[in-house]
Design goal:
This protein has 112 residues and is mainly beta. It has a domain at 21-85. The protein has one helix at residues 2-11, and strands at residues 40-42, 44-47, 57-60, 67-69. The strands form two sheets. A two-stranded antiparallel ribbon has the order 1-4. A two-stranded antiparallel ribbon has the order 2-3. It is globular, with a radius of gyration of 19 Å.
Length: 112
C-alpha cells in the first residue's frame, strides 16, 4: 500500500492550476498579468472590447505584418498547455488564400 502511494505521488505530479501567462489587454495594458512581461503590438492597436470597454481589445488588420509579439520567455513554452482567446472577424481578408489554399490546415478545439 505504501509503495503504491509513493509511486502515484512521484510518477504523476500535479500540474500547476494557474496560467503560465495571461494577457487580458484591459485598459490598454499589454503586460502579462502573471509574470509582468510586456507584449509588443506590431501594426496593431487597442480598441473597444465586445462589451464596449475602451482600450480592452486589440485590433489586428489581418495582414501578416499585424501581430502581437508575446516574447520568448520560458513560461510561454510549456510542454503541454492550451490557448484561449476571443476573435471577432470584421471582414474577409483577401491578402492570402489561407484555408482555401491549404484545406488540410484547420484550427478547431480537438486533437490533430
Amino acid at each position: 500500500m505504501l509503495l503504491a502511494y509513493f509511486f502515484t505521488k512521484t510518477a504523476f505530479p500535479q500540474l500547476k492550476k494557474q496560467p503560465s501567462a495571461k494577457f487580458s489587454f484591459n485598459n490598454g495594458n499589454e503586460d502579462d498579468e502573471v509574470s509582468k512581461q510586456k507584449a509588443k503590438l506590431v501594426d496593431a492597436y487597442f480598441t473597444d472590447d465586445r462589451f464596449g470597454n475602451s482600450k480592452s481589445a486589440v485590433y489586428l488588420s489581418g495582414h501578416e505584418c499585424s501581430y502581437i509579439n508575446l516574447g520568448t520567455y520560458s513560461a510561454l513554452k510549456p510542454k503541454i498547455g492550451s490557448i484561449s482567446l476571443w476573435v471577432k472577424l470584421t471582414r474577409e481578408v483577401f491578402y492570402r488564400p489561407g484555408i482555401h489554399a491549404q484545406p488540410d490546415h484547420t484550427y478547431q478545439n480537438r486533437p490533430p
